[in-house]
Structure formats: structure tokens, C-alpha cells
Amino acid sequence: MTPEMIAKAKENAAKGNYGNVEFRLGEIEKLPVDRDSVDVVISNCVINLSPDKRTVFQEAFRTLKPGGRLMVSDIVLLKELPEGIKDSVEAYVGCLSGAIMKAEYMEALKAAGFQEVRVLDETSFPVDCMANDPTAQAVIQDFNMSPEQVNEIAGSVASMNVQAVKPI
Ligand SMILES: C[S@@+](CC[C@H](N)C(=O)[O-])C[C@H]1O[C@@H](n2cnc3c(N)ncnc32)[C@H](O)[C@@H]1O
Fold this sequence. Notes:
CATH superfamily of the largest domain: Vaccinia Virus protein VP39
Bound molecules: S-adenosylmethionine
Structural class: alpha+beta
CATH class of the largest domain: Alpha Beta
Shape: globular
């Protein structure tokens, strides 16, 4: 996250006359938010980019009020990616190589103290999405992948929505 992103967000909020929003510069592993202070934590496709997902979930837990809810959408792996892909910068930017196994993700949420951890929705990564995504295309070209290999990678990746609750 960068100061430019915050400036842009503030500009857009002013344009839309949104007086009930606030933007803080920070990192997901160290939220600039007091403990037990928020009702809901949401995130879309950011946690998969963090190298320290356990700390991310601990931070979400710390900042939520007792009884508060977490609702995140993220990319996870159903099968391990081939070694080369894991190390690829393009795959990281494309949210592939930062992703961890689904079971590990769910376990990390529970280890942070969350309860009622539930997957609400899960979609496998569509192959046509890889065909249209420039970072996925860069990965395909870098690794000179066959259509079968592209299918295999797509079948290893899923997008899921997860809900969890901080106990009272
Ligand atoms: C795939 S985008 C998703 C953005 C937004 N949530 C959305 O739905 O459009 C990932 C975003 O995560 C931010 N990001 C990556 N690592 C982060 C971290 N450790 N802490 C905070 N933000 C991070 C990046 O700057 C980028 O804006």
C-alpha cells in the first residue's frame, strides 16, 4: 500500500461525498487500528499476497470487537503449485504464488482464535480467466506451458469467500 493510494481514495470519497469513510496507510500484518474496536473486517484478494498470513489473521482478531465478524475473499491452492511457478514474480503479482493450501489457510484462522470458520463460496480458477489475465499470460509464456499444464495450474487454484467470528 502506498500514500498515493490513500490520496486517490480520499479524492474519490470527496468526489462521491462519502463522509462516513476513513482511509489509513498501513500494512495488513500491522493494522493501524486499536484492539477490540471494529465490528467487521473485510478483505478482497490481499491476504494471499502476504508472506505472513498467520500474523494477518492475528491482527484481524486483535482489532475486532468480541462478536465481530471477518469476511474475506481470497485465492487458495487445492494442490501445490510446481516449484518454478512458486518462485515466479509474475505468478506472485497475479496472486498465484502467494497463495497457500486451503487447509493451511483455514487452520491459520482457527489458530488465531476465530470460531465458526466457514467457506461460503468456492470457485475454481477458470482457464479463460488465465487466458485474459496479462500476468497469467506472462507466466504461461515464461514457462512455455502446454494447454494441459495451464489446465493443471487452473485446477490447482480456487477463489473462496470465508466467514469467521471472534467469540464474545
Ligand atoms: C489484488 S489487489 C486487491 C485490491 C482490492 N482489495 C480490490 O478488491 O480491488 C491487492 C492489493 O493488496 C495490497 N497489498 C499487498 N500486500 C499488502 C500488505 N502486506 N498490506 C497491505 N496491503 C497490501 C496491494 O497494494 C494491492 O493494492
